[in-house]
Amino acid sequence: MRRRQGKVNRWVITVLAVIALLFFFVESGSVHSVRSRLYEEKVNAARVSARAFEIMRNYRQTNIDLPIDSVNDPNGTGLIGLQFSKVTYGRSDLSDALTTTNPNFSAALIEMLYRAGIRSGDTVAVNWDGTYPALNIQILAVAKTLGVFPLIVSAQSSGMWGANYPGFTWLEIEKVLSDSGLWNFRSALATLGGEADDGRGISPEGRELLLNIAESLKVPIFIAESIAEGVAKRMELFSRCKALVAVGLPVTNSGDPLLRLPSRIFTDRHTRAGNGLIAQFLNSRRPVIHIAKPSRVALDYRLPVAPIPLPAIGKGRLYYERRYSVPLAITFSLIIIILLFLVVRYDIEYYFGVRSQEEGNAV
C-alpha cells in the first residue's frame, strides 16, 4: 500500500471522530443492571432483620402495652425510644435512629463485614450500647446470615431515641429475640455504660434499674473503676476475636469521652484512634468496623437517611450494579486502534480519491 507522506486530511480525521462518537453512544446504551456481589446474603440478612423488627413491634404492642410515638417513629417500627429517660446517657440524633430502622441497612453491613475480611466461622467482638437497637438487631441478623459468631459486651445505657424505655432496654430486647428462636445470640457481659462505663451521668435510680435488669436476665455485670479497666476487661474477653464491631456511644470504643471517631472501617494500625478498644484492636492488626453515626454510613452506601416510608427490600445500588458491555468496549477500542494505525501509516486519501492539503497546493 502507498505509504503516507505529509499530514492526514481533515476529512479523514472528521470521519474518525464521527466513528468514535458513534461507538461512544452505542457503548453508553449498553449499560445494564446486574446483581451485586453477595446479593443473596444481602437480601437474606435484610429479610431476617425485617422479621426481627416485626417480632419486637408485636412484643411492644401486645406484651408490654408500650405505645408507639407516630410522630417520632413515623414508620411505626417500635424501635424508636424516648428523648430522655432514667437510663438515657448522651446525645444522639433522631435521624440516625430512624435511618437504622431501614432493613436494607443490613446489606451495607454485609458489605462492610466482607470488606473487613470477616468470613463464615469467624468470631467477632461486638461492643455496643442501647443507642441504636435497630442497628444492633441488624448486626445480629447479618451474623446469622454469614455464619459469624458475635461475642457481645453491652453497655446498658442508651443515647436519646434508643432502647431507653424501662422494660424495653437493649438487654430485654436481646432476650426477646433469643427466646423467639430467630437466633441465640446474647450478651456475654454487661456494664452500666455512661460517661465512664460505670453509670456516671445516670441517676442512682437509673443505675439501680439497669442492675436489676441485668440480674433478672442473668447477664454477668461488670462495674469498672475506670475506663481503662473497662477496656482491659473487654480485651481479655475479646482476645481470640478476629475483628471488632463497635456500635453506638460506649466510651470504651475510643477510651476518651471527648474523642469522636469517624464511622467507617479501620484497618491501619497507625490511625489515631484514642486508647480504647478500637486502638487496641488496630495495634494487634485486627480490623474494626465503627458505627457511631449511622447516617454517615447510609450516605456512603447510597442508602436513604431517615426514609419515610421504608424502602422495599432488595432495591437499590447495594443490590444491583450498573455495568457497560465489556465485549463491545473491547471491540470498539480495537477498531479505533486499527483505523488510527491505517490512517497514520498509509495514504488512505489516495485510495478514496481525496487529496491532502499539501498535494492540493502542489497542483
Structural write-up:
This protein has helices at residues 10-28, 39-63, 94-99, 105-115, 133-146, 170-179, 204-216, 227-237, 251-254, 277-283, 294-300, 326-345, 348-351, 357-362; strands at residues 32-35, 123-128, 149-155, 164-165, 168-169, 187-191, 243-247, 264-266, 288-291, 320-323. The protein has 363 residues and is of the alpha/beta class. The strands form three sheets. Strands 6-3-2-7-9-8 form a six-stranded mixed beta sheet, with helices on both faces. Strands 1-10 form a two-stranded antiparallel sheet. Helix 1 packs antiparallel against helix 12, helix 2 (39-63) packs across helix 4 (105-115) and helix 4 (105-115) packs across helix 5. The longest helix is centred in the first third of the chain and has 25 residues, at 39-63. The radius of gyration is 29 Å and the shape is elongated. The mean pLDDT is 94.
Helix content: 40-55%
Tally of DSSP β-strands: 10
Largest sheet: 6 strands, mixed
In terms of structural class, how would the helical and strand content be classed?
A: alpha/beta
Give the neighbour order of strands across the main sheet.
6-3-2-7-9-8
Q: Quick check: average pLDDT? A: 94
Note the quaternary state here: single chain
Number of helices: 14
Report the sheet-strand fraction: 5-15%
